[in-house]
Amino acid sequence: MNIRRLVVKTALLASIALASPLSVMSAQPASTSKPKIGLIGSGNVGSNLGRVWASKGYQVMFSSRDIEADRKLAAQVGSGARAGTPQEAAAFADVLVFAVPYGALPELGRSLGAALQGKVLIDACNPFPQRDGAIADEARAQGAGAVSARLLPGARIVRAFNAVGAARMGVMHQTPGKVGMPIASDDQAAVEVASSLIRDIGFEPVLVGRLDMGRFLMPGTPLAGEHTPEEIRRIAATLKP
């Protein structure tokens, strides 16, 4: 083979290698996909959150004790929404959102068990003694964050969506960032995941402290209601777990 033909052949092989799918793929940054969200409880809070997330391109699964109602809800929400049992939602999801009466947590912790291990879990549940009984008294005495962590062992809990009306959760994405969302957690990586989801709902997340600050994330406390992010920071600075 003469020098001219050798040069041409070498250039041709090089151009083929550069154009190969493997070369092109390796040159592109890895894509990041949105986490799948499993909603345990599809009442006012769960349905409003799920609707907004689905509209933002997330895959969501609604679950509750009424699978038929969940199927109807998923059909209404449309693209990105589906229905399942709590066990199916826990297996499906990268992030779980618990929006059930607080009295349901002991049984959910037992029935979901290993499915909760290592999973980011947004705890939107509030303890009301008149509805939830003794476990609510315990959560109010010890702090809802600490008790939720004990009832849902292995989950990476972020307490959020506890003291703002459910209807507002469905519309805040229309005027995002004006209202703060106080959150509490012991897991910084889980906070980052939850914060992204909270911003897509339309609130600005404000970390007020560790899970023991969860006692203030419920109705009837100074952090309840709608506040700007700066107001939340000022209020939180006056509170002690």
Describe this structure in words.
Helices cover 46% and strands 15% of the residues. By secondary structure, it is of the alpha/beta class. The longest helix has 17 residues, at 3-19. The termini are far apart. It has helices at 3-19, 21-27, 44-55, 67-77, 86-92, 105-112, 129-132, 134-142, 144-151, 166-169, 188-201, 229-237; strands at residues 37-40, 60-63, 81-83, 95-98, 120-123, 156-159, 180-185, 204-209. Helix 8 (134-142) crosses helix 9. The protein has an 8-stranded mixed sheet, sandwiched between helices. The chain is built from 12 helices and 8 strands. Strand 7, helix 11 and strand 8 form a beta-alpha-beta unit.
Helices, strands, pairings?
Elements: H1 3-19, H2 21-27, E1 37-40, H3 44-55, E2 60-63, H4 67-77, E3 81-83, H5 86-92, E4 95-98, H6 105-112, E5 120-123, H7 129-132, H8 134-142, H9 144-151, E6 156-159, H10 166-169, E7 180-185, H11 188-201, E8 204-209, H12 229-237
Parallel strand pairs: 1-2, 1-4, 2-3, 4-5, 5-6, 7-8
Antiparallel strand pairs: 6-7
Helix pairs in contact: 8-9
Keywords:
241 residues; alpha/beta; 8 strands; globular
C-alpha end-to-end distance: 82 Å
Kindly name the structural category: alpha/beta
Q: Give the count of helical stretches.
A: 12
Name the overall outline: globular
Main sheet properties: 8 strands, mixed
- The value of Rg in angstroms is 23 Å
Q: What is the number of strand segments?
A: 8
Kindly report the average pLDDT value. Answer: 88
Order of helices and strands: HHEHEHEHEHEHHHEHEHEH
Q: Write down the oligomeric state.
A: single chain
Strand order of the largest sheet: 3-2-1-4-5-6-7-8
Q: What percent of residues are in strands?
A: 5-15%
The share of residues in helices is 40-55%
**Unreliably modeled segments:** 1-31
